[in-house]
Design goal:
four-stranded antiparallel sheet; 2 helices; Ig-like_dom; transmembrane; transmembrane helix; disulfide bond
Length: 158
């Protein structure tokens, strides 16, 4: 307990970037949210694999307190180039929390990059899909015409 309040560790989550951001922008913003904790003694760090990231990080200067619950929340944002946001890269947000007696640093969340299709690859994939449907429907149309012609030929031969 601190100040007659129960100590509560933060809940940590990395918000997934939007589809628009991953498709249309050159950088992707990862947002780490630490919430529902008390007291407000926290620090947030980002790592890629085992290496701490210090550039392109913007963390709230202080935690904000919810007026109703009296619990705190804090966010940190990491900008990553689209080229670096690949499935092999694992980004981790760690919230170090001081509970009144010692630091706890096992409050983490992580996210892997995703394969982001470039505009050319997306255009090719959409065209390939359209060509597939045209081929299928064209083949079906040809089959219907063939059956019709064969029936007409049979009727003439009778």
């Amino acid at each position: 307990k601190e100040n007659n309040r129960d100590v509560k560790e933060p809940e940590v989550e990395i918000l997934k970037p939007s589809g628009i951001e991953t498709r249309c922008k050159k950088t992707i913003t990862l947002v780490c949210v630490a919430e529902k904790f008390y007291p407000d003694h926290v620090s947030i760090t980002w790592t890629l694999g085992d290496k701490e990231i210090k550039e392109n990080v913007a963390t709230d200067p202080y935690a904000t307190q919810d007026k109703t619950t009296k619990l705190f929340s804090m966010t940190s944002r990491l900008k990553v180039s689209k080229k670096e946001f690949k499935p092999k890269n694992k980004y981790r947000c760690t919230v170090n929390f001081y509970n009144g007696t010692h630091d706890i640093s096992d409050n983490t969340d992580e996210i892997n990059g995703i394969e982001v299709l470039s505009v050319n690859k997306m255009h090719f994939a959409m065209n390939a899909s359209n060509h597939f449907y045209i081929l299928i429907f064209g083949g079906l149309y040809g089959l219907v015409v063939l059956v019709y012609v064969m029936r007409k030929v049979r009727m003439i031969n009778l």
